[in-house]
């Protein structure tokens, strides 16, 4: 009876005006709570999940598009300048969504296991870091010995040109990597790409001699940002200062600008990915993923299409690397470790291989777990350790709790458990691709017939 009632309730939420009412109520409630409590993590999570409600409930596309644009372009920037930490989390989500969408082309569409994907991210970052900083004039100096008054090679507005150059250079790097190794399959390809990712990181770490190209582990800084016109700052304050409640500084609006640039890049990536998925190239990638031998027998040009997948995925990572370098104003080799590649791969698997909405949800989930939930729990436990509170019944003092039990230290363990659970109970991911859903349904029906 309870199950029947729950089913009827779920069906009711998808009928008539209820989807519109529930979607608006969810978005409005999340917005109000974050506005009234800018430091509440629960309110922020409620606001973010309103985008999932907007996607899941059956409403007209015009309604989804209009509300989504309003939330992304108006609500998020206003709430973000009230608490810059939330805007930082959303920017990080945007970066990893773009990286995951790029890797989804390589792994989800073409079925090529790439464990060094973060290398293309590093290529885009170091491209703008070198030309947008003083590094050109630092070439003859050892790290830390350069004069303090060196000029910048290019003005900050050259960044917009380098966003396109990062796409091209990263794509060429993907082709350069793929040309000698894409005849390999499976584990062998994964090992080679892993090695390539480590080669790029080690180059960034050690290419400070004999000429100082990367400044080694001391990182390249400062890096120029594009110009933010003063009239933009004044216009924002003139319109939104009564809502925000204070004068917004230029440094804060830079965070809004980079968030909006990341949003534009994600929209372009989604459009390109959708067009590729429904094209002859996308169907050929699917054929390669399912059975390379059969694909070759049907006349699919295997190597050239694999190179195309690597180039497309690498280009998305390259442009986000350039954006990250300009946003952070520094680039460090530690940002491009092997675990970053594994993290992006786990986002793709968690969301659903080949599924665009699934990958977006997977990247959002993993980033929030990393930056907010686990870090929030660790901060809360740290506060308890500094108090005189005790755990009731067992009478255990919180100050005696070991720091080794901080949740933030067990990120990889948690993600490993999540991936194992997903592979057992939902192998297609949170939102499986349509083709993957049909394959899984077919496998289940065959198992029932055999049983």
- Topology as a string of helices (H) and strands (E): HHHHHHHHHHHHHHHHEEHH
Give the spatial strand order of the biggest sheet. 1-2
Structural Rg:
24 Å
- Summarize model confidence as the mean pLDDT: 86
**What is the tally of helical segments?**
18
Largest sheet: 2 strands, antiparallel
The outline comes out as globular
Helical residue percent? over 70%
Number of domains: 2
The number of strands is 2
Strand content: under 5%
User: What structural category characterises the helix and strand content?
Assistant: mainly alpha
User: How far do the termini sit from each other?
Assistant: 29 Å
Provide structural commentary.
By secondary structure, the chain is mainly α. It has two domains: 1-82; 88-356, no CATH class. It is built from 18 helices and two strands. It has helices at 2-12, 18-36, 41-56, 61-82, 84-109, 118-131, 135-138, 159-181, 186-206, 230-244, 250-277, 280-290, 292-297, 302-328, 338-351, 356-385, 411-425, 434-450, and strands at residues 390-391, 396-397. Helix 4 (61-82) runs antiparallel to helix 11, helix 6 (118-131) packs across helix 14 (302-328) and helix 8 (159-181) runs antiparallel to helix 14 (302-328). The mean pLDDT is 86.
